[in-house]
Amino acid sequence: MKFRALFVSPLSATFELDNNSIFHSEHPFNVIVNGETMVENCENNVFSIYGLKPDADYRVEIEGDSLDIHTKPASLILNSEDFQTLNGDDTLTLQSAISLLPKDGVLIINEGTYRITSLFLKSDMTLYLEKGAKLEASLKVEDYPIMPAEKNLESGKRDILCSWEGNPFPGKPAIINVYNATNVNILGLGEIDGRAPQGEWWRDVKHLPWARPNMIYIKDSSFVTLQGITVENSPSWTIHPYFSSNLKFLDFDVKNPKDAPNTDGMDPESCVDVDIIGVRFSVGDDCIALKSGKIDIGSYFKRPCRKIRIRNCYMHEGHGAITLGSEAGAGIQELEVSRCLFSHTDRGLRIKSRRGRGKDSVFDGIEFSDIKMEHVLTPLVVNMFYFCDPDGKSEYVQKKEKMPVDDSTPRIGSFLFQRLECTDCEWAFGVFYGLPEQPIGSITIKDSHFTMAKNASEGLPAMMLDLEKMSKAGFVFHHVYKVVYSNVKVEGNVGPTTQCVDVAELENQ
Length: 509
Hints:
The chain is mostly beta strands. It has three domains: 3-70, Sandwich (Immunoglobulin-like); 74-237, 3 Solenoid (Pectate Lyase C-like); 286-509, Pectate Lyase C-like (3 Solenoid), CATH 2.160.20. 4% of the residues lie in helices and 50% in strands. It has three helices and 43 strands.
């Protein structure tokens, strides 16, 4: 069974099977390390091993195939149990241990529960949570300082310190923070619990004068890896990388209640070279939402979210499995999603944009391949009339007639969907609404199969005004230059398979 190493740390490693199956392996397998079985009956394409020693050689074997790895060295290993907390708040204790770490040092959070507010990690360190270790966030709102939205650097350029939904906004720091750092690892089999359902974070969320904390915030940083941990019960967006690069998110769990407000699983914003592989999501909003700020941030910094690779992930519940926007003022480019399993999400792909996002807000080079969707209400949704902003229901945003193309007009380019297996859909197979003044470039759907649930409900696939509820609808296209079908099979829809309004070219191969 062929496999490859994705990441090796001083204490752990993550691997991926080299196969064509979606999320799950073709059959269970054991992982043997230096002659001893370390993982039994593994069923996922992505898996990890833990409890390794630094600067050591290991041979990993699966069903006759082997791979040799060498773990990274560690200059110093500190254990949380060697530090004493006397007042019940472990924040300063753990922050002191972090400060003591030299370059390439490791802080092991030993088994037990640790109560913290916010921790700030630094360059060239590993935070390793043992199995049974839990970092629990304080529920006292007053324990968290309010950080400024932005400051000017000496060069005169803006530096965004805190943001909320694409704009600079004062905010509470995250539970785990990585600012201006490189080579940072957050690893292990432990948990980071925001405990939001037990406190005040989800009450009156529309009127707070500051942004609620993320669970993990990564800003202006590079070569940051998350592996193995469980992150749950976030006050707001769970994992928020911002203006960062060369990030790896591997083989871990993100869990939030289904009714939690604004608790996206992961929101890479204006990031480049991001791998999200083998991650499992069950959240109260979008599972993964790619962003690049609203028009102010997008047009000023011009940093699109690009070179994003999402593979072998599992999305369960949530509004959208993979969402682009709506705050994407600098655009989203070069996205590859493959071999993922979506289950019981409202939508599979979800594009959210609107007039006012700006001319730099370009969505292009988006590819979905080898995706299985089970009980996804509407697998594919592109909505250029998204209404969730203070002015989202204004005539300017929602007008269905042509408006002038200007500096505020976003653009959607090419999308490729191939080898999709979508079963038990309910509202529609796909709904695509471009702007009349700026139609979607091209939608290509190839070698795919869509079926409707027998007892399908009805609902609104896209958050836009003047859209009627749908049930068992096929593909609906409004304002698209080119639509291409190639070997697409559908079953169970009621009415026409394809409805086109202002589609310049429809090609059915």
